[in-house]
Amino acid sequence: MTTRLDRELSPAELEAFGQELDALRQRTLADLGEADARYIRRVRAAVRGCCWTGRALLMLGWFPPTWLLGTLLLGLGKILENMELGHNVMHGQYDWMNDPEFAGRQYEWDIVGPADFWRHTHNHVHHTYTNVLGMDDDVGYGVVRLFPEQRWKPFYRWQPLWVTIQALLFQYAVAIQHLRLDKLVKGRISKEEVKPLARRFGAKLARQWVKDYLAFPLLALLLGANALAVLTGNLVANLLRNLWTFLVIFCGHFTEKATVFAPEILEGETRGHWYLRQLRGSSNLSGGPLLHILTGNLSHQIEHHLFPDLPARRYAELAREVRLIARRYGQHYNCGTLWGQFATVLRRIWIYRLPATGTA
């Protein structure tokens, strides 16, 4: 079930392919040190600086350019926290530092979804079963048909609308994903199994809403500032973060040359097979350092899927070697510009809304 032409590898080639990538991973692990620790601490400082400066500017109200600049800085801080700090720390990329603030299993991020939800649905399920139909819930997130191999359902006709709503509310979408409401509706799990998860989601949701939409606006009132300016600034900052996260994730997984797989591929899957599946199911974005930082280095989605527990700041240098390895083994290395890749995602969303473009 591929959507591009890659050379099929013999068992011996697959073993060698896996060994080369294992060796690359081990060399990088052995080289981790103070430069990596210093980098993530600087990211944390940048997040704090952007967020607090943005919130302070919002206290000055609508007066140009304070509201616009404050909102953009707060949005930037939330994007950096979500992408380059939270996501990467929760993968355990900095556990070797033995610093509780950067411990992958303890970090709690600034979105409505509890971190433990993400650690299961993303770190475990998605990264184990990447692009395997019926196993990886990230393929369309249950509401979007992006590949002809996905069985068509009538509600896919309106998926341009569903995906627009999903983009605007992306932090809620990835949180609700863990509740497995689809299984509840189908009777595969009980309400009693969902209730404790729903309570945890509700508690985190309440904390986030109180912080952004109650506490800071009330603080503005106490200080004699414009509470409405603060409220709307927080709302728009969260919206910017949602849209950017959606854009990066969809461009990393659902482009024209990304591949999905039948569950049978997991039977007897070796390390080499697993690496090959990550390579074929991922898409990179070309660009400069700013793009890479703002995406949490998920602009190197291929390298992230190959080495999720390596510090993401290393992906750019790893990409050069991974590209060469892929070329030696006759494999396509899927890389393109942000807007070029997103155009192919939009094309998939539009084309596969209809049953005539796939299996009904």
From TrEMBL:
User: Which segments cross the bilayer?
Assistant: 214-237
Enumerate the CDD domains for this protein: Delta6-FADS-like
Entry keyword Plastid: no
Q: Which GO terms describe its cellular component?
A: membrane
GO biological process, alphabetically ordered: lipid metabolic process
Q: What molecular function does GO assign, one term? A: oxidoreductase activity, acting on paired donors, with oxidation of a pair of donors resulting in the reduction of molecular oxygen to two molecules of water
Q: Which domain of life is it from?
A: Bacteria
Q: Where is the Fatty acid desaturase domain?
A: 66-335
Pfam families of this UniProt entry? FA_desaturase
Record keywords: Membrane, Transmembrane, Transmembrane helix
Q: What is this protein called?
A: Linoleoyl-CoA desaturase
Organism, scientific name: Ectopseudomonas guguanensis
Q: What lineage does UniProt assign to this protein's organism?
A: Bacteria, Pseudomonadati, Pseudomonadota, Gammaproteobacteria, Pseudomonadales
